[in-house]
Amino acid sequence: MKLTVLVDNNTLIDRYYEGEPGLSLLIEEDGRKILFDCGYSNLFLTNAWKMGLSLDDLDFVLLSHGHMDHTWGLEALTRRLCELRLEGRPCKRPALVAHPEAFTSIALDQCPEIGPLLEPGKLARHYDMRLGKAAQKISERLLFLGEIPRRIGFEQTEGIGFKEGQETPDRIMDDSALVYRGSEGLVIITGCSHAGICNIVAQAMDLTGESRIADIIGGLHLLSPSRERMEGTVEYLRRIGPKTLSPCHCTDLDSKIALAAVAPLREVGVGLEITYR
After folding, report:
1. pTM of the entire structure?
2. InterPro entries from the xrefs (predicted)?
């Protein structure tokens, strides 16, 4: 499996790409091309073009959850696919995989919408919609985890914003992740880890029956975490013994320093390419 970082908050040194507060990854595995999240804007398309990568032949678009820094780029991708068809140029009709609640409007403080800009009815005209809470098989080795059980106490949160029709803060039950079963263990690919990275790892191990962790790459949502959460996360990850950790996007410097006590940390930024066996 080859993974390329198209969008992240950071860029790699001497790689002349651009970053933004968001995440988008291109995954190529077993003849399939998979876009995991779309970032905040059309930047993932621009960076892919600079890298010489085409996104006109995507097989899957996976959304980790509904927040704008992961879904608002979907509008740019939809425009791109529509323009290709209008010009009679070849392109695929990707499957769009997400939790159904990922398309519910979310208000936060004075901002009336931090959720997706497009609704499933219109998206169904451009994509093969595969919305569900259950895990979904993407290939023989790739699995979209679906809804993540919130089983670990120190990862419980108060929620962010309010979903339409709800009176309590949104606990972001639509937050999910992707897992690849490689020869050296599981590669867990996250968007923001609102479900809690330990909950995500536990679910990935349960669904695959594999306990070896080769890498965890993506946002871990460790932004000024409580002492209890940071210490609990470090202890949990130390017990499972990942070979490498690749935190990015929504993981602050203090959290990365703490995680460095668990396993070697990889620097992540736009332009990073990794191949997992």
Report:
1. 0.97
2. DHPS-like_MBL-fold (IPR041712), Metallo-B-lactamas (IPR001279), Metallo-beta-lactamase_dom (IPR052926), RibonucZ/Hydroxyglut_hydro (IPR036866)
Among candidates 69, 78, 117, which has minimal Cα distance to 96? Answer: 78
Distance CA 205, CA 188 (A): 10
Q: What angle do CA 25, 58, 83 make, to 5 degrees?
A: 110
Contacts of 173 (CB under 8 A, 6+ apart): 99, 101, 147, 195
End-to-end CA distance of the chain: 7
- What are the helix and strand counts (H, E) for the chain? 7, 15
Look-up of token digits 């219109």: 122
Residue 11 makes CB contacts below 8 A (sequence gap 6+) with 17, 18, 19, 269, 270, 271
Mean pLDDT of successive 10-residue stretches along the chain, which has 277 residues: 98 94 97 98 98 97 98 98 96 97 95 95 97 98 98 92 93 98 98 98 98 98 96 98 98 97 97 97
Residue 15 CB burial class (10 angstroms; 0-12, 13-18, ≥19): middle
